[in-house]
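Hey, I'm writing a tutorial for new members on how sequence and structure tokens pair up, and I'd like a real worked example in the thread rather than a made-up one. If someone can provide the structure for the chain below, I'll link this post from the tutorial.
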Amino acid sequence: MAVDDMVASALCGVMERALIAEGIAPAIAKQLSQRACHPVVGGATRAVAKRGKKVVSKYNKELGKQLKKLKAKHPRTAISGLMKRAHKATKRALK
């Protein structure tokens, strides 16, 4: 018997005696203390539903293309500046 099991059974006994001292019937006190010391396993988990893939918008696809082109032309430019240029180019391309 592991140490954890011995501690759990001792606490169950203490809880049972305390419930009986409070005036609860011994049979009910025993059931309550056993339920409290031995939690139910398996009922608390639930299955997570699988999500479908996110749909990539036309704008986002074009933005990726424009950003890739700009990165190839200007590799040392900061991404914030490239994003601004890519956004402008995407708006023009989608008109």
